[in-house]
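We keep the chain:
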Amino acid sequence: FPLNAFNKGFLLQFFHKNKNNRRTGFFLEFNTNLNDPNALMTDEDLINGNPFSYTESEVIMKATCAKFGAILSFSDKLLFNFGGFLELSYQNVWQDMIGYAGWARNNAGTVSSIFGDGIVVRYKLNYLCKTYGFVFSHKIAKRFSVRLKSGAGVLFAMDYDDHVIRGKEASARALGLGLQLAESVTYFLGENLNGKYSIRLSHKLRYYNANGVQTMSWYKNDGNVEKGTTIEGIPHHFKSFQQNLVLSVGIMFK
């Protein structure tokens, strides 16, 4: 399931310094996609490890991601800052697979081309991750600063897919691990009575891995499988590696 797309969003941050000169703060981030993925969804079916069908489909997608968290500085100096953070992130992806083209192997071993149009699969995915980690920032010049953010946490994953052409639904839930790493460079343009302006370039990595169980049910006949059949307890593995390159323009008020 491809996720590559352009996104738009915002980041709001609030910081306060206490009498010990340590900063505490809260942040809220939200983004959503601007376009559909430019890659194809691929689907391969296996029997005893041997592929018997392979198809590719175009994708229509709606994806959103929201984050809320808190930051506490352990050391806040003039040129560098080191602290910890707690973050709750939620990612929702909805996709429709349109059309398919590929090949299939029958019981006799003969391979033939297959194709079709219309909606073939509908897919929904949810990731909820509670992350703990560290943040380090350093002012390397008068107008430049760098920042590194790294964390790990507990991941809850849930998905649902509807194979429309097969009349089969499947849903799964799982617990696992979520990791994140982000580095950024900020250039401060200057400041006036309205605040301090900046441009930031960020690179963000996110890795999710979870194991759970899946339930399949058929709402129409599918070959030798009759309508109404349900299979529970199927092992299901979530694995996602995501990276984002972000350009942002901001203003900071004091």
